[in-house]
């Protein structure tokens, strides 16, 4: 009997070992800038099994049992390398060198451009792959938004060095001292930083609700500042027009695109075992429309977008715009898991530095077509909540992709110190943004305090309504107004179920 069980155990062990897989992971960065490289192809020998780095340069790849070959890393803008499997034992940071020549102008090919077939298929399947067309979905997101100065220009850098190494007998002017003080701040911290965790539910058609679970904002206490940047990024690269920073750009993945855009296959890679085509796109005529240029990767699994890197094609614009999106297939549907947006304000100059803004969003706990009760939705699209500091910090720590670095921690310290002297601005901005001044379990409608029109002239009054501290289910209140020109009083009230 013992021998029989022993043989059975050995048989199962061999079967398990034959199918067992290990996994390797790592992070890929630019050898010069030390910045993460998104969407690097990581494949095994033969190229039929692989993955790509995410927007932060991280990757994880399962390795079939018995494999002992090389791991290949490639990107259209970098030199391809290969590493032994043993190099991945301690999750290495891998630096890639840029190609001596970056992506060139698109080449016109004779006959049918092979990229056209792929793009045509992606356009045909765009509605079924667009996550906005799902019956319902929900996710938890971690978002980080920061404003930071660029490196100083050469003139300012030289002046700062000279002032810092001046003889003690040389006195600085007030302007020179101010520039040095700003330089010290710029070297150690950002100018603004906010991070937030929110939970969003969507029920189509047209119903959505987002709940702010935790937030941290440099210099401010009101959650309204965190909500300002939460929806500033395009959610999916399937809309006909991509809205970025108040400007709309024509999407290359839509009917009629070949009249506006050129496409060229620059690489073929693999995600798991599916072929992914890496396609460069650029406007045919940059002057005739607001176009985008960049790289889009299309998986043959549903001809869906796997990832995209795009920027505004107008190199002379006052604001440089770049964004990245990465998608994963979840429960049979492609869904965005990471969104990045970068803005370069070329004309905003502070002490020899320009300003840059960055937004990073990461989606987790994604549910596709979950059962959602329509009664959960109402007029409130974004629910701002306040939690105890300990709970708030625990939630942020749970959903952060990486701990805050020294520069980010310094931002909270520096900005909190500066804004402590003008704390009243916190409440004033919230009142202007929401239109209400909180007063216990009521709130004052500031739009009713003073207004102007042709019939009444100046109208003075007051509006007072209950808020969610009184009840989350019902809201009631009223207003009174008096017209200076018509000498008439006006008043009214309302009761509203939330």
Shape: globular
Largest sheet: 11 strands, mixed
Radius of gyration: 28 Å
Biggest sheet, spatial arrangement of strands: 13-14-15-16-17-18-19-8-9-10-20
Mean pLDDT: 82
What percent strand?
Answer: 35-45%
Tell how many strands the DSSP assignment holds.
26
For the termini, the CA-CA separation is 70 Å
Helix and strand composition category = alpha+beta
Please report the number of helical segments: 9
Unreliable stretches, pLDDT < 50, 5 or more residues? 4-20, 102-106
Please bin the fraction of helical residues: 10-25%
Secondary structure blueprint with pairings:
Blueprint: H1 2-19, E1 21-30, E2 41-44, E3 50-52, E4 58-64, E5 70-75, E6 78-84, E7 93-96, H2 114-124, H3 126-129, E8 136-149, H4 154-164, H5 174-188, E9 192-203, E10 207-217, H6 224-228, E11 241-244, E12 247-250, E13 261-271, E14 274-283, E15 292-299, E16 304-312, E17 319-330, E18 333-350, E19 353-368, E20 382-384, H7 389-399, H8 406-419, H9 424-434, E21 436-439, E22 442-445, E23 450-453, E24 457-466, E25 474-483, E26 489-497
Parallel strand pairs: 1-7, 10-20
Antiparallel strand pairs: 1-4, 2-3, 2-5, 5-6, 8-9, 8-19, 9-10, 11-12, 13-14, 14-15, 15-16, 16-17, 17-18, 18-19, 21-22, 22-24, 23-24, 24-25, 25-26
